[in-house]
Request: fold
Amino acid sequence: MKFPKYGHYALDFSGNVMEVFATGSWNLHTVQSLSSDMQELVHRIGDTPWAALMDGRRWVLSTPDCQQALSEQIKFNIRHGLRRSAYVMENSMVKKAQLERTHPHQDDAAYEPDYQREYFTSYFDALKWLHEEGYSPLPSQPER
Reply:
């Protein structure tokens, strides 16, 4: 099996949810590209509360230098309205351990009591949790 030089991602903002689809093995170049694209999207929505839904079922892993850069991007997102993060991936302790190293609560100065992060093995369970928390990728419908 041949792996590309670095992984890929797709970003989409719908409703009040940013969906991130991660694939492959990530290096710092991938994270820097993601951060640039993500910041552009975040600036467009302003500081209104929003959630992130990260589908990492096809993400392989990342190099160690990615963790700090991802952590900084997550802190930026929280400062700009991110309140919930739902991570979807198979039961992999290695992946979860890598993602836990990016958790902003590891840095007391970045602690945000309104921010919550959860892990799921089902995309639909993640959507359900986000919906229960007030976040949905569906545009809000006017009440009749």
User: Anything to note?
Assistant: The chain has one domain: 8-132.
